[in-house]
Predict the structure.
Amino acid sequence: MTGDKDRAIGFDTDSPILVMDRLCKNYELGTVELKVLRDIELTINEGDYVAIMGPSGSGKSTLLNMIGCLDRPTSGDYWLGGQNVALLDDDQLSMIRGARIGFIFQSFNLINQLNVVENIEVPMYYQGYSESESAERAIELATMVGLEERLDHRPSELSGGQQQRVAIARALANDPLIILADEPTGNLDSESGAEILKILVDLHKRGKTLIVVTHDEGIAENAGRVVEIFDGRIKRQS
Amino acid sequence: MFLFRFKRTAKLGIKSLWMHKLRSSLTALGIIFGVSSVIAMLAIGEGASRAAQEQIARLGSRNIIVKTVPPPEDKDVGSQQETMRVYGLTYLDAERFRNSLPNVEVVVPSRRIPQQAWYRNRKVAVEIIGTVPWYPEISPVRVISGRFLGSIDMHHKQGVCVIDENVVKELFVLDEPLDQDVKILGDYYRVVGVVSAAQAASTADAIENGAVKGKSQGGANVGNIYIPLTTVKNRFGEISLQFGTGGRSVEKVELQEVIVKVGSIDQVLPTRDTLETILDRFHKKSDYQVVVPLELLKQAKQTQRIFSIVLGSIAAISLLVGGIGIMNIMLATVSERTREIGIRRALGAKKRDIIIQFLSETLMLTFLGGILGIGLGSLIPFLVTHFGRMPTVITGISLVLAFGISGAVGIIFGIYPAYRAANMDPIESLRHE
Ligand SMILES: Nc1ncnc2c1ncn2[C@@H]1O[C@H](COP(=O)(O)OP(=O)(O)OP(=O)(O)O)[C@@H](O)[C@H]1O
Ligand SMILES: [Mg+2]
């Protein structure tokens, strides 16, 4: 897992992969300051499988976006791979998102005008893979998630479960350190949900760090750690 | 690295433009019309400009043309009755030009008389130009067959003439004109040469008819017949009967025109000044007019420049409208694809990548529009020339200019939407529905 890529982005793979220290996130709503995350203290090591749980509106998605470097903390520190995210500029955050993080969303978030292979290729495009390299790898990944028959299909021609499998393949494209999933089974029936879950568990077994926001007790049982959030605070974590 | 990115970015752009074929082509239409109107307007302007300049250049840029014009009527018009009005340029004037003007190459005095010429039973309205053998030096006429008037003709006041092509066409339908006799006012003149038609004369008339009410309308003439000046003086005299608004009057005019040609273009204006001083001293009435083709040329160029600027501005405005259309569409596209932008940002796209993506789409649209616009813009002047009988000239510069402008429009109007796309908050964009 370590290599040139880690050094290039300045990752230190020995220390915990992720450390949050009294991290706060506020949103300004007119004159009112909405405290969405308050004094989050969180440490996650490489290879962890963490479930983030909590009631709706408690700040789970906000926390996950923070972890994924889509957002910056209002105060407090966030160390990802030994780097203080607050000090990185927009391009560096993009680099980290592209190279180190794989996103899986509740609503799949595939690009509608691209087919399965092209969707999986998107993250590789921004990492400078050549066209043939990325196409080859995309087909490999699609096959891995069981979509070898659907390479040319558009998202609109796929079932929800199939779309989410494309999203997982896409999240794996750049071989990320952390996979972040925000209610990955939330839009799926229980059967496809179970399929998706099985793929995620497989990934964890192969050494991926997995952070999943979920309401699903089943996922939480599978996960090695559960972080419970209530009103922006960590109520309990194992 | 950069190049292969470029190729893939272009591919991506073409793909999403192709997804919205109708929208893309309507957007490109704005640029197509803008670019083609730039090219067409410039071509029409340039064509008109060149035509005018060519016509003026035919008058000779080293020439100074002095014309006789009727002086303003005297106060005793009513009682004038049969008194003779004497005015205009004289042989003495021509002599003075030759002797006292520096840098003069030739001085060509001419009579110009509208008349009818006969050959057998055919009749044609012509302008008789009584002139000297060195007339061709100040005129673009070329000898087509035979010869021009010679000094012997001059000296012996021979009854010879040189006719132009137009007269040949009208009078000598089948016959060979050389050595035939043309009859004018009962006298016969042997044709010794045929020259090319000189539009210069009529243009000169047209030009100064605009400023001054000319003497006779040269417009009805089919062509010119050149006769030795001495012969004309001898046979036609210098007195003519004019029918004007105030009844008829008798006029005596020695020369209708004296053209002075100087050695170089630099000498034209100083010589003109000296010439006017001389004329001013010897002519009490303002019975002459000085036309300097060089000045007309300068004026024409100036007018054309303004004309071109006006046409160009109109075209530029249409291009601007096209550009605004593009910006409008691109802004719509950006907001329509907000979610895609959020996805791309989450998957590692830098702001720069998003800018390049949208800017390249705009540029592809404008370049496509530019190329089609150049095609259409080259066709329009062709049609104008063909059906409208107007000269048009498509210059290479106008093509480069139009293409460059379309590119600039693409960048200017593409930057803002692309910039907006790149600066959207990734989380907000992802949540966008
Ligand atoms: N951009 C924003 N501006 C203002 N408030 C926001 C913004 N984003 C989120 N919030 C608020 O932050 C709180 C937490 O939102 P978040 O999406 O993290 O909740 P969640 O735990 O993911 O809920 P759910 O389970 O329903 O997805 C909510 O009250 C939400 O209204
Ligand atoms: Mg949420």
